[in-house]
Amino acid sequence: MPITAYSKFYKRELDAHQLESLFQGESQTEHSSFQDFVLFDVECPSCNVSGGYAVKEGYSKITGKRVSQAHFAFKNTSGGDAHLAFCEFNSTNEKQNSIANEGKVDYRESKSLITQHVGLIVSIGIENNIFTQSDMRNMRGWIINIRKQGQENLDMSPHIINLAQSLARRSKRNFDKYVFDISAAKEDMFNIDKEVYESLCHRFPNFDLSKHFRDNGFYSDIKKRDVAKKAANILKAAKGEYYFDRNILNEKFTLARKLTGKIVKHDDYLSRKLSPSAFLKSNPLMALSSLLLFTSDWDSEKAWMKVENIYKISSVKDSNLGNFIGLNPFANYSAWVIIKKLSFLNNAYYDSVDFDILFQEEKSRLMKLYGLQ
Length: 373
Fold this sequence. Notes:
The protein has 13 helices and eleven strands. With 373 residues, the chain is mostly helical. It starts with a strand and ends with a helix.
């Protein structure tokens, strides 16, 4: 249930109360009731479908307390869910790849000071017509079109991610081959699953990303625990579902990454709050950079001119202009690229291996050796 919807009439994203308040003070619309206007006007903020209606807050008859938020619902002509299959608001069994919707940014609701700071930048940009909420809407449409094209089935064992990380981070004891050491089980940091992966990884040397794809720089990201964990979680959540190949965004990701880094260096507040390695994890910043580049035809110089114009303006009259739910099209990009690379290697070398069975067999064997069962 989307809390906000895009108004074609007002050309921005609004919640139900904001839209109704504007409608009541509007003399130009031909619609006699608010619900008729909503049906005609609003679109889903994620997949752009129409056919919406406003749903008021729900209150408990016993306590009188609010139990549900005002929101929008979208139905098709037969009364069913109108959202497209990949939309995060789809509530049917046909829903696909909800993890592809990561990277959403709500500047209005966020309690993060960094997000609020970026929201102020967004408000300045909109108020001074450097970009508009319609531009944000068009960028969403661009991502939607990418999602629709060339979808691939994501069906790979998460164990492969952990094997690749073990090859990149394996301990000195197990660097050349797995070495059973009963004394290791007495160590505080001993982890049987880690032992299993360090044992198995030597049987799958082609998952060593340092031997492949060194030209694009992503091979080292498998060493980062948060990236590897995210990649494994993506596979667990999306096994057998569809996704779009993030590699087609590689050139644009590079542009957005560089622009984001430049913005952080230019902004005193952001440069104090974010380390060079942290800004890529900031969905608000990457969403802002992506919008600036998108509205500049992905020309870095034009995008930077817009940044400079924004920073020349010290205040904004309406800070609510930045309440639009932005989108970082490159959310968890490194994790997706690693998945793609390992999927290629798996199909090329180990397509017939059942990693779930293999893991359980090796875990059982090592647990017996270490006296854990």
